[in-house]
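Alpha/beta hydrolase
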Amino acid sequence: MGSLNAEYNELIAAGEDLRKVNTPYGWSGPAAAAASTKGNQLIDGLEEWAAEIAAARRAAGDVADAITGLLNGVHEAEELARVHHFVIGDDGAIIDQGPPPDVPPEQQEAVANERRAISAELAERVGQVLRTAEDIDNDFCVVLDRILSGHTIDAGANDNQSTSLAAAGNAGAAMGSLSIPAPPPPDATAAQNAAWWATLSGAQRTTLANDRPELVGPRDGVSSVHRDIANRHLLDKEQSTWATKRANILQGIEAAEKGIIDPTDASRLREELALVDSKIAALDSLENRLNQAPDTPEDQKYYLLDISASDDGRVIVAHGNPDTADNVATFVPGTGSNLNNFESNLDRADDMHRAAVRADDGVSHSVIAWMDYDAPNTIPEAGLASYAEDAREPIDRFQDGLRESHEGEPSHNTIIGHSYGSTAVGFAARDEHLAVDDFIAVGSPGVGVDEVSQLHMSPDRVWAISAENDPVSGVVADTGRYGTSPSDPAFGANKIHSSPGSSWPLGAAHSQYWDRQNPALWDMGKVIAGQRPG
């Protein structure tokens, strides 16, 4: 690279000198014309040379940068194999050296399933490294072919009186840039996303987050820092989109009032305007909440992990970086949760973060407000299991993504479901092997099973919190609509004590688990911190 840079700089200087002496002032006639023609040919040749050198040095630089990402992908695959007692052969084959010898008989099937999943992930990572390497090689060959065949720029089409070698070099540099490996499809697993992300360089990751945020922002398994960068761009786009919608509606109202369109449309348009205004207010409130001082510590910052204002709106906000935190908790709220009321749920995540810090201020914590599923909007809708069924895959994929993107030693992960949110989490834990260590069901109407043993979790890591005056975890849960109440001793979960809560108005206790005088809040903090209450 150093020799290419030196060559390029000398060339630029020589080209400008040649342009100055191409046709001396006052010289005319056949000799002058011949000299000018020859000079222009030399300048054209130098322009092509400048473009070719610029393309070569740009491509070489991009290759060097891309290889750093490729080596990182290799390192991550090898480390994953080492930690789980696998070996990656020279031919890319995944060799399982066997599970630990002391696996209890009752856990052997679960361990075997886990090892199959790890083997599949290692195969995906090896495959992604090879695909990325091939992509780098192909792109570099394209640039070299252009240079060798003289197809970087057409210097003869330039006006030598106004075109400089620097401009030719810029054109060549643009042609020498390498593409960034394409991401997996939108429905890819978190492991597939992480395998792709691991092979990208830091510069490539930043470029994608800023220039193609839609490819990064919603992708589980990608680093939280870059998802935050991308989603803040997407938040800006959402604000612009909804501001445009508002302007169009106002124009429609004005046209209806003037009789340009059907006057009866005015009432409908005003209803639409109210909905749009509430969406804009929520987006603006989210932006204000995310704006923190640049020097805010990493474990206190907010990270925007997803944003969509379509339909009821979905949003994920982490308090603290989940990729570096020792303890990571995901809070799944229940009926009525959406973008418009994200503030109250983020407040609860903040309260649990505070409780975790109080339980252990010697380590870092991240608590995530996860509003990324279609929650029921009304009490009657909360009687439908379809919302929980549809939430299983997003919950499972997000938890897998937290494991994939985490740096260093694995974090202690907790998932907290409130009300119908606990039902959604329960359905996921019943049908999937959630990548969590602890599950807390708060004010739960049921989690889809009758016994804690029916969840794919260690029974002693499942917790239930029920306030005496909470009709959801009391009257509703006792109907058995979603299985045995988690607070019923027959269910078999650990119980976390709660204040009884207000008896009036009816249902007030259902939202009082995060009151600071309620011991339930502080015990949730202990579980998040990897401790046992009591």
